[in-house]
Amino acid sequence: xxxxxxxxxxxxxxxxxxxxxxxxxxxxxxxxxxxxxxxxxxxxxxxxxxxxxxxxxxxxxxxxxxxxxxxxxxxxxxxxxxxxxxxxxxxxxxxxxxxxxxxxxxxxxxxxxxxxxxxxxxxxxxxxxxxxxxxxxxxxxxxxxxxxxxxxxxxxxxxxxxxxxxxxxxxxxxxxxxxxxxxxxxxxxxxxxxxxxxxxxxxxxxxxxxxxxxxxxxxxxxxxxxxxxxxxxxxxxxxxxxxxxxxxxxxxxxxxxxxxxxxxxxxxxxxxxxxxxxxxxxxxxxxxxxxxxxxxxxxxxxxxxxxxxxxxxxxxxxxxxxxxxxxx
Length: 328
Hints:
Belongs to the serine/threonine dehydratase family. Keywords: Lyase, Pyridoxal phosphate. This is Serine/threonine dehydratase. Pfam families: PALP. This protein has helices at residues 7-17, 31-36, 60-68, 73-78, 87-99, 113-121, 133-147, 158-174, 189-199, 217-224, 232-235, 250-259, 268-281, 292-299, 321-327, and strands at residues 26-29, 45-50, 80-83, 103-108, 125-129, 150-151, 180-184, 206-212, 262-266, 309-314. The protein folds into 2 domains: 7-58 and 157-327, Rossmann fold; 60-151, Rossmann fold, CATH 3.40.50. It has 15 helices and 10 strands. Strand 4, helix 6 (113-121) and strand 5 (125-129) form a beta-alpha-beta unit. Helices cover 45% and strands 15% of the residues. The protein is globular, with a radius of gyration of 18 Å. It has a 6-stranded mixed sheet, with helices on both faces. A 4-stranded parallel sheet has the order 5-4-3-6, sandwiched between helices.
């Protein structure tokens, strides 16, 4: 029996999220705006799915709420726990608060302050560990065993994948003529959900991932057709703090192999340039991880299939004020 999520599961997640997650806008980027930024115009039209406009500033609310909302009353009473560098932490904290449950979040000690403060503001208890994503997971599992918390993984679970897939379902409804959708990839929740939602609905639409060159374990795994893990000292080099996961989730990798057409990698300079361009050319605010899909469209168009309309996911907008000042 296949482990892949079904279209019915994604549709059920969409209904579950109604009134909780925002149906975010899909903005068309005017070509004149790119000329204003002194960038060459691509051959395709660009549309930006602004998940930065979710209540927590990122798409992560979709998967987190979809999973927490399916817990039993007994499990909710015991509380939930997750391990995250920031955006999934806020998603779980938001979902737990909405459903009346305690939330404990295991975070790395290099988490951006803006994300840590937002997680605390949502009422979550924070536990700090080292840099490695494996350390965070081990600590969360230890505390779950000790206190009976329900573990809400950041990406490697069918409910998370189905929840994230609702973002792509909205894109298909908002732009039925889309030819290609680009999503960031780290652990693979968003990309696997995007791939499943798209290929099970409109299989002719291309699905591509984008990730930093300095944390390119997903691309290496995709090309090798086997799961490859990178050490934390490599993945933590990228400015994209939400994309520092050391490997794809096992279930996410299955979905990516089944439904994704390709992955491109982005340099650090391209990430920063894409952020500057988005700030200049639109009213949208991207965090580094949220800008990689835009960078793929701007700087790697030749690696992508020749298409007319490209939708990309601006996955998050929790940009540190200090970093934003350097981009002006």
